Amino acid sequence: MPDLPPVLRRLGRGPQRPALAAPVAPSRRAAALVARLNRIPLG
């Protein structure tokens, strides 16, 4: 598996995912994040 960008490494580290688990994160922001991740080719 190639070296992942810091964002993916942060999201994929263990069961605790601060960026995704934050209850205050607006759904619009989450949707934008998901869309951005979906555009990144994981090889």
UniProtKB/TrEMBL annotation:
Residues 1-23 are annotated as: Disordered. This is Uncharacterized protein. It comes from Streptomyces albus (strain ATCC 21838 / DSM 41398 / FERM P-419 / JCM 4703 / NBRC 107858).
